[in-house]
Amino acid sequence: MSVGLKKALKPARLKGLASGLTNVCRVSITRACKVVRFHRTGWYYRSKARDSSVIRKRMREIAQVRVRYGFWRIFILLRRAGWRNNHKRVHRLYREEGLKLRTKRPRRNKAAAHSLEQPELSSNQECWSMDFVADQLFDGRKFRCLTVVDNYSRQCPGILVGQSLRGEDVVAALEKIKQENNAVPKRIQVDHGSEFISKALDKWAYDNKVTFDFPRPGKPTDNAFIESFKGSFRNECLNANWFLSLEDAKQKIEAWREEYNGFRPHSSLGDIKPEAWVKKNIVKPEFSIFGQS
């Protein structure tokens, strides 16, 4: 055996090599430890570390249910549930359980760092972002989702799901959100899609005194909030579910939206859920549809 050629640096690895010699070559423990250069006291050492079986089980359960949650979100959920282990121990257990996400992202172009600076937001309902996301059912039939996100609170006030969405459908979705929130934003960031430049949506914006903010051509980073939301939406919902029908897709997407607003920790909000952050930090907006004359 070419045991001496193996690079064994950690005591656990050295002990494993020595154990292999005693089992395969039938040599004594003293001889095996000498060959692999492992101190004999380490052979008889028994770990006194805390039992980690319960927290490992809980981490696996979270990872199985929320397959796109990485280490930090799992750590935050454990803290929220009462676990007091520090992040270094949780990260070690996370790696040992093989839960590391293998998501290699493309390198960003350096020009993205020079995009125009967006106005600083100070209240809820001040600026929203909208865009479409496309997916398909199990039989290949395609559908689209109109996603809406509040840039300040990171809340998602609504997601419209349909197979053919036009400007009139966008207006209907905004009217529904308006009735549920009793307010409309001052500004909405959208792209140059045909649904967002329709006459129906333009009239709705004029009637509600809403300004549409269009990005520079070929610069999706100008609307970074919705792009980030779309990435989370696809990773955690669309890619993680199998949609049997359009109605099934609506139910699963709405369930994810409620979890996104009321359960999922957000790093940009101090690792708390948007609903809790809104109750703690949001200043009531001065702009309301019912305050207009």
Short note summarizing the structure:
By secondary structure, the chain is α/β, with parallel strands linked by helices. It has helices spanning 11-24, 29-35, 40-44, 53-65, 71-80, 87-96, 167-181, 199-208, 224-238, 246-262, 274-281; strands at 127-136, 142-150, 158-162, 187-189, 211-213.
List the helices and strands and how they pair.
Layout (H helix, E strand, L loop, with lengths): L10 H14 L4 H7 L4 H5 L8 H13 L5 H10 L6 H10 L30 E10 L5 E9 L7 E5 L4 H15 L5 E3 L9 H10 L2 E3 L10 H15 L7 H17 L11 H8 L12
Parallel strand pairs: 1-4, 4-5
Antiparallel strand pairs: 1-2, 2-3
Written description of the protein model:
It is a single chain. Helix content is 42%, strand content 10%. The chain is α/β, with parallel strands linked by helices and 293 residues long. It is elongated, with a radius of gyration of 27 Å. Residues 108-116 and 284-293 have low confidence and may be disordered. The protein has helices at residues 11-24, 29-35, 40-44, 53-65, 71-80, 87-96, 167-181, 199-208, 224-238, 246-262, 274-281; strands at 127-136, 142-150, 158-162, 187-189, 211-213. The protein folds into three domains: 8-44; 53-96; 122-285, Nucleotidyltransferase, domain 5, CATH 3.30.420. It has eleven helices and five strands; from the N terminus they run H-H-H-H-H-H-E-E-E-H-E-H-E-H-H-H.
